[in-house]
Amino acid sequence: MSQRRFKVLQLQNRYNVNASDLAEQVIQGLPAERFEVATAFLRGRPGPGEPESRAPRSIYFGFSQGATKGLRLRALWALFRHCRAERYDAVIAHRFKPINMLMLLNRWLKVPACIGVLHGLGEYDRAYRRWEMRRLLTSAWRLVGVSRAVRDDLVNCGAGFTASNTRQINNAIDIVRAEKLQHPRQQARELLGLPAAAFVFGTIGRLVPVKGHIHLLEAFAAVKDEQPAAMLAIIGEGRSRVELEAAIAWHGLQGRVLLLGAKDDALQYVRAFDVFVMPSLSEGLPLALLEGMSGHLPVIGSDIDSLRPILEDCGGRIFPVGQPQGLAEQLRAVLTLSPEARTAEGERAYAYLCRAHAVEDFRQQYRELLEELLAGGPRGTP
To answer: Can you name the CATH fold of 6-172+359-373?
Structure first.
């Protein structure tokens, strides 16, 4: 007799589907002969030509941002009716809002296997959230932190998370896909308009203050005269462009610092860089750093909680967050390395990436966690 498939709902706050989306990687890790997966989004839906989830079924609740704030009664009722009708065996909820909504509803739904995935730090800094979590958390739930920093933040925040109900499943990238996507060094430089002989510090990220680009630019200004062939290339777009352009003019960095704008699948250009730099003031899920490692590059990053453990473990370079002088010291240190030493540093980072952040391990860990929670068998008949 064929084995009954478990019904799984994966719930996200808003539509955001792309090839490197970790929620999509969770789906890939659940074999179709054992799991029947539906993915749902509280807000948004794909427009013409935009990708859809690889889950066999997608649900778009279509709520406005306002409808998912405060008491969220209409959204809660719609989600309750959907889950009651579908009788899911398991739910996987990403980020605070979907987790909170399903925890509230599960007092009545009684879904036996529930996973909540936290992608950022400080989600339970508010006293009310901690109080509420201590009352909603049941044995049906396991919480997942996407890095050591997020997991430790959860366990230590006083919301009822413990070593037994909280796991660390490292964020990951599809390394094989990443390497296939990347152009060779010289081709990537030609596509970006970068000189073949330049020494390029590079980064990828939205041009917004929290990404710390202004500090990277100021750090580069401090070392530019020590290496006339050095350049800084930033892939990304955003509201900080005007500020960064003014800083480029102020420091006389025209032609030495290039704001390259947003690029589709920016990962394909990563090998145009000699060093990958992540100067962020805050990060929850530092996928861009992992993408830099996939290019076999030395990596430099700020000492924020989500980056520091990764940089320590991969042999990367760390500077005090928001301090251009400290970042300049690390830029200078990499500039003085021999080509062989820089290559070795990049290979160490790549080897760590393969050990700790491979997407195959990521998929397996979610599958095993789900199977552990479902070990008591599928839901019984009411």
So the answer is: Rossmann fold (3.40.50)
The three-class DSSP label of residue 8 is: strand
pTM, two decimal places:
0.81
Q: How confident is the model at residue 286 (pLDDT cuts 50, 70, 90)?
A: confident
**Cβ distance 206 to 342 under 8 Å?**
no
- Residue spans of the domains in the chain: they are 6-172+359-373, 175-356
Residue 377 has pLDDT above 50, yes or no: no
Distance (Å, whole) CA 152 – CA 121: 9
> For the chain, how far is it from start to end, CA to CA, in angstroms?
23
Amino acid, res. 271: R
Q: How far apart are CA 270 and CA 265, in angstroms?
A: 10
Could you list the beta-strand ranges (E) of the chain: 6-14, 35-43, 57-60, 90-94, 113-118, 141-145, 166-168, 199-204, 230-235, 257-259, 275-278, 299-302, 317-319
**Containing H/E element for 156?**
helix 148-156
The domain covering 175-356 belongs, at the CATH homologous superfamily level, to Glycogen Phosphorylase B; (3.40.50.2000)
The β-bridge partners of 2 are none
pLDDT tens digits for range 7-44: 999 999 988 886 457 888 899 999 999 999 999 999 99
Query: Of 81-85, 119-123, 162-166, 326-330, where does mean pLDDT reach its minimum?
Result: 119-123
